[in-house]
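Annotated sample (chain length 267).
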Amino acid sequence: MVKIGFIGAGNMARAIINGWLATGKVAAADILIHSAHRQSYGPYAEEKGLVPVESNKEVVEQAEIVFLAVKPLVLGSVLAEIKQDVQTKKSVLVSMVSGVSLAEIQEVLGNGKVELLRIMPNVNVEINEGITALAGNPTLTDEHYHFCEDLLNTLGKTTPLAEKDFSTFVALGGSSPAFVYFFIDSLARAGVKYGLTKKQATEIAAQAVMGSAKKILVASKTPWELVDAVSSPGGTTVAGLLAMEEAGFMTSIVKAVDATIAKDQKK
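Output written by the structure step:
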């Protein structure tokens, strides 16, 4: 089996690893991991049966595919550390570093033959219901692209995307789970206002959101057409929708997307 390495062991790296382990797509013994603080990744590696290594260089030396899962501020130093080993080993680098382009990574590595794939997953990959954007550099072979695509498809769905659209994906696919959690919690709090327990209200709201999302994915109608289908003339749903619009619901969502994109693009 191909060895897969992770440089960085934060929440998103762990979400991906946990998703693979849950499906059995990747064996724990085939995953190498290293980050700046042994006290952080060591216990996690032991708990999951992963292979902890002592340096970023060791990750590259032992893995065919290396995920860069570090903060943008430290990416430069990490690339400088592994530069020679990447060129020698010819590992495929998969960057999940927000706001850093393939061209910027390539410039630091200084070798046009390095195979690079940029991805942007969301946290739901941990339960195999995520969505991940993919963009490869010209050097990345079709074989390696499709291998990585297959790996990531086990975590939900993938979508090829131009790099210029990654910031938009961050808002619609990456940050949006938090927006949805916020929406569900708000619905649940309204349920509590009218006498339900928080647990009961949360379960009702979450199930309704999950079913509605699945309905959109399988229906031939647009989301707005589905809104109309639920909205009986003079009914309760229309009253609720009008109240939401009066409070600026749609505008608040657009502003959330605007703010997320602006933050992602700010260097």
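Annotation: DSSP finds twelve helices and eight strands in the chain.
Annotation: The chain has a mean pLDDT of 94.
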